[in-house]
Design a protein that fits this description.
Largest sheet: 4 strands, antiparallel
Distance between the termini: 5 Å
Shape: globular
Radius of gyration: 12 Å
Structural class: mainly beta
Helix content: under 10%
Strand content: over 45%
Number of strands: 6
Length: 70
Amino acid sequence: ATDWVMVSRTNPDADYTIELLDEAGKVVFQDNFLGATASVPLENLAEGVYVLKVIEASGEVSIHKVVKAN
């Protein structure tokens, strides 16, 4: 199983926040990043479906589904 998710962006010069939420909507990971790529760790999470939010400094939000399976 993969223990992380790689996030790639087109604008490497702007900072951004990544949030990972579980099925109940609880934030299980949150961190700020700068650069074209970021790694989100999954190793301590239970199997299930998660929502990955990428929040740009401009306020733009993109939402992605992540499935963690062992």
